[in-house]
Amino acid sequence: MDVNNAFLHGDLHEEVYMTPPPGVYRQGEKIVCRLHKSLYGLKQAPRNWFSKFSEAIKIAGFSQSHSDHSLFVQEKGFILTMVLIYVDDIIITGNNDKAIQDLKLFLQQQFHIKDLGKLKYFLGLEVAGSKAGIVISQRKYTLEILDDVGFLGAKPVDFAMEQNLKLTNDQGEILNDASHHRRLVGRLIYLTITRPDIMYSVNILSQFMHAPRKPHWDVALHVVRYLKNNPGLGLLFSSSSSLQLRAYCDANWANCPMIKRSTSGYCVFLGDSLISWKIRK
Amino acid sequence: MAAATCELTWLRCLFKDLQVCLKPITLFCDNQAALYIAANPVYHERTKHIEIDCHVVREKIQAGQIVTQFVPSHLQLVDIFTEALGGDNFKKLTSKLNILNIHAPT
Q: Cys-Cys with A226: which of A146, A160, B22, B37 at CB 3.0–4.6 Å?
């Protein structure tokens, strides 16, 4: 679901004045107006909107989760309804259709809300659900990256990074236009949400963001060529998996050639599905 | 291991909010030494640099929230995150992580 003009819903608690927009005042007149509701562009607008929303949904019987503040849960006996909000995008799920319908009606009364139907696209992630489970992928985003770099027709490669390749911060010439490189790596970082397979190379690349050199750019392009190989890859959350968590952790000992720090990482599985992972140097 | 333990603690809280009760979580590690240190509350002079990490993991083990287990290196799934892999290993691990292409013609 999507909220129309979300920030206009917030109540303003501070005194804020603004000059009226052209057309409201006559020539030569000097007036200001005091705001009663929040507007786009105000510093406190997002905060006001969120507090308004959380107040409203708490009235409906939801409680805010302590471990994730944008998650609201309602529990009535066996009926469980969950709401996840990201600024003005809302995902609702639960085990009872009636409860979900009631909640939608309630939200529609409170705010101007557009129902977008079943979840398909959220923050650039494509979501596809079936009986077997849910797949999230970023196919469109990947293709955009390929298009941006001009690699739509490039020869794909099988691996994200060459083995035994050690990047350093003093070899090769410095790139003239570093912003290009930074933008590309930034986009690759966002892509790691559904592509843990490029995680390692992106981690390496982002260590050289301050002064990227030619070899780093080459590696970044290599990753893009790897993406070309299979842009539609995504993560599967199987519906038949058990509710047992497994975690793996590992560290490579002093792998970095420059400062001899090790990279450690972990990943967590719920049943068969990968739900959380991280690596850091 | 400590980083993983922290994440697991958070996940446990999250699942509690979602009304899911979890059994103790299995934490796989391919480092025998780390596992022994985590299991035995014996002072070890070489652990003095990583003291807090040890205590964090040990506390959770004693509270019964996680269970540590050894996993041989060739079955270690995190390798894909900490090393540049090639060959079959990379493909094997990618499929293990449940990464697949739904657009692929079957």
A: A160
